[in-house]
Amino acid sequence: MASTRRWYLLALALLPACGADPTPPLATAEPGVVFTAPADRQIDVPLGTRVVVTFSDPIAASALGPCSGSPEAPTGGVCLVGPNGVVRATATVTPDGTGAQLEDVALEPGTTYAVHVARDVAPTAQNLPAPGPLFSFTTRSTRPRAAAPRLVAFNGGDPAAPESFRPMFDTSTIRLVFSEPLDPRTVALAPGSVELVDANNRQVPATVIASGIHVVVDPVDDLDGGGRYTLRLGAGIADLGGQALAPQSIEVTARDTRGVTGAIPQVLRTRGAGDPGPKTSRAGAPANVIAIVKPLIGREAAAMLPSAVAASLGDPKVLGGPIAFTIRRGQRLHASGLDVKLGGDIPVGLSTGDIEIELLTDGGGRIYRNPHQPDDQRPENERAPLYVDLSLDVAVYAVDPGGNAVLTQTVLGLQATGTATAADGVLAIETVASMDLGLLGVTSAPSNLVLELITDASATAPTDTTPPSLVATFPADGTAELPVDGGIELIFDEPIDLDLARAGGIRLENAQGQAVASVIESHGAAVVVRPLARLPYSQRFRVLLSDVADVAGNRLATVTVSVATPALASTGAPLTVAGIHPGVPCALNGGRCVGGLTSDQPYRPFTLPADEPIEIAFTQPITPGTITLGAACGTGSVRIEELSGAGTCVAAVAGTLMRRDRLLTFVPDAPWVEGRAYRITLVSGNNRSCNAGELCGPSGDAASFDPLNGMTGGDAGGPALAIDFVGAPRSGGTYMFAQTAPFTDQNGSGTVDGVEIRRDENRAALRIKRTTGDVSNARFETQDCIPSTPEVEACLYLGGAMPVTLGEVESGCTLPGGATAARCVPVQISPAAMYGTSVAMHATAIIGIDTDTGTAVMRVREPAGGGTVTGYIVDDNGTPTLVVALDLYMDAPDMSIPLSDHDLHSKQLSVTLKGPVSFLPDGRIAISVANVAEVPVTVAIDAPLGVGGTVEMVVPAGEMKLQLLSNPLRGVSR
Amino acid sequence: MTKLLLTALTLCATAPAFADEVRAPARKAPPMKRLYVRAGVAHVAPLADSREMELADVDGAASLAVRNGPIAGSGASVSSATIPAAIIGYKLTPRWSLETVLGVPFTVKFRATGTLANESIAPMALGIPTGVPALGAELGEAKAVPPVVTATYQLTGGGRLRPYAGAGVSMLFAYDAAVTNPLLVEVSRPEFTVKPAPGLALQAGAEARLAKHIYARLDVKFIALMLAEAQARHVQVRTPELPLFDTVEVGTARMSVWVNPLIVQLGIGTDF
To answer: Which of A655, A754, B26, B160 is most buried, with most CB under 10 Å away?
Structure first.
């Protein structure tokens, strides 16, 4: 028996040798995680990113649930853990069943998240960590900071270890991420700003593009493989608050990617239906679709259209495994257009036409072994697909000129991560990318793209043979609407060669033909010519486009654009606030504007959503030297302070004050805390003289924040404007600090001065209907506002700002006047104020009376219960139309009638405004409303000896016009 | 096991002759020595011709370099062999006999020819040199047993030299097939199989009586229409110029070789 067993055992021992391969194949990858997006340790991840984890085998859907538990051991299957614990979210199964994803998660900016995956989600997975997170990533932060800017990433890695995330190739574009947005005027390839030098300290020609927190440096020619280079960042680089970067240098060695084989040409094209390639997707979302999700426009999707780009592969041996690849600048991908609808429901008459995505710099990256599998396991499609890292800087623009003006933008630092699968004779590259797309100039929308390209030796990358053309400008040619602190936007139908433009191809000149020092910024198919210093008022300029071409070299014929800054007449009227968010543009006393009536309805406590800035618009240029942001309680002419429960200052809020000619914007370092009290204080001093710590205007006098006490020269100084507010949750809406434009009273004098241009877009026409009592013969002593009518109307030219927030689409809306609309977008309008220019009037009350109304102040009253006024954007036969009812207080504080009184103080008016929402050729949103019905304005005159009467006036229907514009889309600098 | 099977098949092929032998005494004719054996050596010389090697199941990274289908200009051949062999025959009549060949299994080597031997089958992938070299001549080998059963007819009635001719069937059985190409086994040993290949045998020869009951024989057989179909599955190769992949599974390589062997056999033996 024992002998039999020995033979049996011997047979068993020999069996493998007989039946199995003596040399087993290389280890096949084990089941498990094959892909994640974002990539592990990726930084600068857009907030709207999808978080995807894909496995080699189907996952257990039942293991996914709402995330909760402790940060060390979250429950819920696939969960994010941030600094505040487990993020409340629930992962869903990807369509093919092999992955889980988290979508529409409210990620915090500048925050590192760890992604935990429970074992029961994928029981067969062999590469899940036990315990701990599978991977981590850090979100993007674009918030300005009080501190000086600093470099936070070099090619995605720590600047102290510049290759810690992405290797530096000889073909690489250097991509930098800063801690906060930079002033684009301070970023250029120049000593003191950005320099790239080789080992012999020679300058390396490069294209430098800056946008927000991103700066990219794309050497014109590839670097020398193995060459040592130094990137110098100088103190000339500053943030939006004017703080300079501490100079620093980063040394890198450019890895040779070409080796002995040289670059190997390839053509990549979008994979379409029926094309060869893998049968399964790792991305968890439809391939070649850009998905945009934002309440302002709802959910939109643009499908990638057939596109081909030329690429080149590096020598596969020279990097010891990874293969570098490059996609040269100037090449394009195409996508279907967007038919923009507010809230996804209300058409705004804006179709983009096809969307083009052009590489502004050399894009590229590398194909490398799947980092989730051990090195000794061979790559294979199912369990260990190759990984792809792709970095791009792109111009996004549209074929339709109107859509292009709205959409065109530069997106830097686009990071795509994905897999490369060889199948059916092609290498299919499927990448997942997330980006923030600017939307209508007022917000940005999270956009997720799954881009799938395949190699195709028979495809040909198209050649661009069409020269660019200039389709729109801001300001428009021949106008005098160039902000003195703004740039000139030149909107082309395709991106242009920035280097050529910067080399003198585009030149800003003053009236004498002298060059005005400027930078040329990239904004997709548009460029902005931005002067380095503020321009003077009342000056003409021209932009000479003498050598403009696209990257392919197609040249535009010479074009000249003539613009001018607004005419600014001198005035003794003091500087005051035209609009403020949050709050009202007047000093308050007991919740009422100082100078108003005690019967005025007091304003309720103001709130400010956590993610919205403080913005303050002024009627005149602010004297720059008088703007001092308080760093401690009770200091500075501009104070943003946190309050105690007792209403006293606890500390100055750390943040950035961005100073423009007539606008101050304050962004705190951290979002406003819900329920916490804050105070904005603008100091004007107690007297007219401009003293230290006071805000002053161009007249040399201190500002005045009590307009109801008068707006003439003698009224300068007075009570500080102090607005208390409480931090509120994020609104979810789209905030827009809309200002009247174009407006007439450029110098804020309250009168139409000789050099000022009367603008019909913002004015109210007053018509005298009749007089009563002892008042007779009333007439306006002004230019007829509406010559087409037999009467003589007087024009009050209006100016001001009106912060609005566009909400999410609603159903069953009750509109002012009682009408209903099936769908609408509510618009929250802050209780702002409008200023009207003076009107000269003559009347007889026993004796002849001549008077000027002086500046008319029209304050928007809060609705019952306080808060904002709600308007509605509805679909009015295909036209998006705003309807809003405003209750106003009208004051004429400087109106003086000899020996008489008048009642134009806090006079209550009600007006329903209605008008279209449209887009200007330069892309700005225009809300152009007018009163739908006649608005009666009756002024009572009370003279001595019992003499009195009224002048009954009306604003005829349609003759109170307001046009509110969003800011220029391509941004403005400090 | 395979050997046993082949032996059994060979015995089965000769079974009718033994059956006749059992029946023979019933005729009461003068005893005729019906069973004969001629032992000696046989030289098996394939007159091989091949189709182009075909690749199948090509997917993954390999699909970037090669496609399913024939490799242009490629070919394969099988080697010749000389083995001890014996002819065992059974005379049905004085002139008609049934006979078979018993021999020790011999090794057949499959060899690459044409571009398969001289050029890389996957020189480039996506325009990138793969570093996969030419295979060289060696492909694989297998043990083969080609049992042949023929019916022969003695052309003359007697004499010291008796020419004969015959015809029959043959089947090539291969076992212990293995890929031996160093390149193809560097990563792993692919599965290598050879299907049994039938053929038609034509036979001619002459037998000379050396002494009483001692005969020498020269026998020539040509096995026609014998197509050996071999395939190597899960072929993996290294891609030295593509370290990213390291190795690539090519899929399945199929070879179809017209073996058509010419078997020349010299033997000496006696009748029983």
So the answer is: A655
